[in-house]
Design goal:
Blueprint: H1 3-19, H2 26-40
């Protein structure tokens, strides 16, 4: 395929993406934001990174750059 046809296809795709506006699911957005607020408020259901067990079981993987 020549450069002209390739560029034309890319332009067509870019234009489609630029002007395409999908339907927004506001209910799903509200649920997601409410869940995020619960995590930030420190609820018991929220988890912290420190609470997640190590996948390797080795917590000393970082040697301080030695």
């Amino acid at each position: 395929m020549g450069r002209g046809r390739q560029k034309a296809k890319q332009t067509k795709v870019a234009r489609k993406l630029k002007y395409f506006s999908p339907e927004t699911d506001y209910d799903a957005l509200q649920r997601e934001l409410q869940a995020q607020r619960k995590r930030e408020s420190g609820d018991d259901d929220a988890w912290r990174y420190e609470d997640v067990p190590s996948a390797t079981g080795d917590d000393d993987w970082y040697d301080g750059g030695r």
